[in-house]
Amino acid sequence: MSFSDKLDRANDLFNGMADRLGVDMASRVSNDPESIYAYRNAVIRCSGCENPEACQGWQVEHPTAREAPSYCRNRDALRAMK
Question: Contacts from 28-37 at CB under 8 Å and sequence distance 24+?
Answer without folding.
Answer: 28/81
